Amino acid sequence: MTAKKTRPSTAPADDTVAAAKVEAGVPAKVAKPKAASAPKEKAKPAAKPKAKAPELDADADADVFDVEDGLEGEADAEEIVAVDKAADESDPKVKVKPLRMKVPKSKERALIREFGLDVTTLTEEEVEKRRSELKTLVKMGKTRGFLTQQEINDHLPEKLIEAEVLEAIVKMLNDMGIAVYEQAPDAATLLVAGGAGTAASDEEAEEAAEAALSTVDSEFGRTTDPVRMYMREMGLFELLTREGEIEIAKRIEGGLQAMMLAISASPSIMAKILGFGEKIGTGEMTISEVVDGFVVAGEADDYVAEEDVDSFDDTEDDDDGKGGSKAMTRRLEEMRVAALERFAAMRVSFDKLGRAFDKYGHGSAQHRAAQLTLSEQLMTVRFTVKTIDKLCSMLRSQVEDVRRCEREIRRIAVDRCGMPQEHFIKHFPPNALTLAWVEGEAAAGKAYSAALGRNAPAVQELQTKLIDLQTKAVIPLEELKSIHKKMNEGERSSRDAKKEMIEANLRLVISIAKKYTNRGMQFLDLIQEGNVGLMKAVEKFEYRRGFKFSTYATWWIRQAITRAIADQARTIRVPVHMIESINKMNRVSRAHLQEFGFEPDAATIALKLDLPEAKVRQIMKIAKEPISMESPVGDEGDTTLGDFIEDTANVAPMEAAMQAGLRAVVSELLDGLTAREAKVMRMRFGIDMSSDHTLEEVGRQFDVTRERIRQIEAKALRKLKHPSRTDKLRTYIEAM
Predict the structure, then answer these.
(1) With contact defined as beta carbons under 8 Å apart, do 10 and 197 qualify?
(2) How distant is the alpha carbon of residue 271 from its chain centre?
(3) Mean pLDDT (whole number) for 527-556
């Protein structure tokens, strides 16, 4: 049933149109007045609601003027009872249920806080008073059909009386069907604007006011502060009770079991699972890599061991001690033995399944019975999340290969050859493995037949690949796709449940992350790392142990945050074990300072920690925080720390000047010798060369004996020792 949306008239609200919308499954909108222009001496509307199209289909997907659309993230609306005008007249007791559940008191306070009413700075009476003022404003507008700007200013906090905020408020009121005028309009203006049609009953106005309080968050809660944005969105999710945690944990486990039940129908996946069992038996894989536990027949799903929390023996699960380690090893060995027994039983059932397939064929009664037995045995084993992900990835890979071939065949037949899409969808799936199908289509004499005939070899090659994929999967391709679909449904169910559990415990991450501030990481980074730990806790949580999820998740969150601080907080990374040693040393140092009033030295700390003094000094050196070379020095900050660090790689300016002067003087003195003497002196002493030379090397260069080179060198030295030359070098010798 459809109905036409029309402009509001001067008559009362159109019940027939509203009832028709309800029957069509579309929420009935509040009629929107259109403020008409009036003479200057009369009231002039400050803002007009957007004009609607003359006619709109009542079955439209989106209703932009629905005041309830602002309640994002809340519970789904209750079903609307379909009531038309005739039924309404005959049975006055029939009422239309509200679209949304009423906003809880805590939610309203959070929204009003974003509206400018901070409960941390206002008393309870002030908050309630301002909240009622805002509610009264919306209720007044719904009852009369209009508001004035003065009324808006009187009912809103002073911090919101700004141009941009007022514009947003006016827009929100217009979307609700409330016109906003600068002055109170007269009857003629309302008649022209159609405002009389917007009058609502007290009950409707009350519900609209409640809805408006909810839309305030999305309209005025905007901020550029990421922490505040995160906090506000986090507040939309309610905390879970103990029963709620168990219910979500069951859904997570149920989704994983649904995934395993689906993929158990794939023989290739079952062969992989049995291969895991063989590797566990040979020691190639540990039991903890594959199996998380077992599902005992008749086990109570709603088991909550309240008393077990008090009587739980911590020593049995204490992995830090020898007793806990032995207990863990014993439990793993017991789990390994039990798992091997179940894998052996599954191997027998899998062999029976293969014989039933060979003898009776796929889908026969015997084959289905054997498959059911195998699936029941598989469901008694709880596999780890990583194992399930690995198995699901294998199935996805098989289905993706099939779809890749099918997409390529469709591209050839439809895009390249021109076969109609509808014809391909209708005739190809039943003939996907029939090689003669493409030949029959090519001989059909259609417009695309000739082109399809030329591409027949390519299509048949892809069909051959599909046949090979079906042979590898051991089941029909359609059933493989069906298994993949069921697996995705289970995965989606598990993922949604995990998302709910994570969102409901975001506050826990905040409370823990606050304790680790000022340790080198930003607060949002701490929250992010804590959320990673929370996600791991959701995957590992076992509700059957009887503990609350928050108790279990706290340690995962702490570990994730502390590891992140150790890895990322310092500019120079320090290993985690060294961080622990630094923390121990700091605790001992603080205790000594409180007891004796002075800081302990390295020897005292080494004695208390029972460590070598050299080790303690190494820890103290590592514990020092690095300082940036760009750190300003002095009151004015015009110099940096790097300016005061000695550069040992370069020569000092004074020394460089002396070396340059000495080099110039030596070159001048050598120029006073003969060319042969100067070259011999340069080679013998390595002047302007990479290294010096022996007498024999210089002799080979001049093709003379060693003795002759020695004589030339001695003669040159006698010349250089003359006082007229040595005076030039005396200054540099004294400086050195």
Answers:
(1) yes
(2) 34
(3) 91
Work out the average pLDDT over 686-691.
85
The pLDDT tens digits for 245-300 are 999 999 998 898 888 889 888 898 999 999 998 999 888 888 888 888 887 654 54
Tell me what the pLDDT averaged over the chain comes to: 75
d(CA 190, CA 144): 10
CATH class of the structural domain 658-735: mainly alpha
Question: With contact defined as beta carbons under 8 Å apart, do 255 and 491 qualify?
Answer: yes
Does position 460 have pLDDT exceeding 50, yes or no? yes
- Phi, psi (degrees; rounded to nearest 5) at 455: -100, 10
Place of tokens 């949306």: 5
Query: What pLDDT is attached to residue 194?
Result: 52
User: Residue ranges of the domains in the chain?
Assistant: 1-222, 255-391, 399-481, 578-623, 658-735
Q: Which residues pair with 640 in a beta bridge?
A: 632
Query: Residue 508: its pLDDT value, please?
Result: 92
Q: Which residue has the tokens 């995705």?
A: 488
CA 138, 74, 64 angle in degrees (round to 5)?
A: 55
Res. 598 pLDDT band, cuts 50 70 90: very high
- Taking phi over 0 as left and psi of -120 to 50 as alpha, with beta for the rest, 180 belongs to beta
Q: How far apart are CA 417 and CA 448, in angstroms?
A: 6
Note whether 569 and 626 are within 8 A (CB).
no
The answer to whether residues 384 and 291 touch, using CB atoms and an 8 Å cutoff, is: yes
Stretch 388-392: mean pLDDT? 90
Quickly tell me which residue has 């509700």 as its tokens: 543
Return the pLDDT at 16: 38
How far lies 144's CA from each of 11, 141, 179, 201, in Å? 14, 5, 10, 10
pLDDT cut 70: percent of the chain above it: 71
Q: Is 326 exposed, middle or buried (0-12, 13-18, 19+ CB in 10 A)?
A: exposed
For the whole prediction, is pTM greater than 0.85? no
**Angle subtended at Cα 501 by Cα 496 and Cα 502, rounded to the nearest 5 degrees:** 95
Alpha-carbon gap, residue 271 to 721, rounded angstroms? 97
pLDDT in tens, 47-82: 444 443 433 343 433 333 333 333 333 334 333 333
In this structure, what is the dihedral angle of CA atoms 543, 548, 552, 557, given to the nearest 10 degrees?
120
Alpha-carbon span 267 to 354, nearest angstrom: 9
CB of 157 closer than 8 Å to CB of 137: no
pLDDT at 193 over 80: no
Q: Which of 110, 111, 157 is nearest to 133 (CA)?
A: 157
Is residue 533 within 8 A of residue 559, CB to CB? The reply is yes
CB 179 within 8 A of CB 195: yes
- Check residues 290 and 84 and name the one with the higher pLDDT: 290
Q: How far apart are CA 245 and CA 550, in angstroms?
A: 10
Q: Count of CB atoms within 10 A of residue 657's CB? A: 11
Q: Report the length, in residues, of the chain.
A: 736
Could you tell me the two tokens for 532? 């990673």
Helix (H) or strand (E) holding 607: helix 602-609
Q: From CA 565, how far away is CA 519, in angstroms rounded?
A: 7
- CATH of segment(s) 255-391: 1.10.601.10
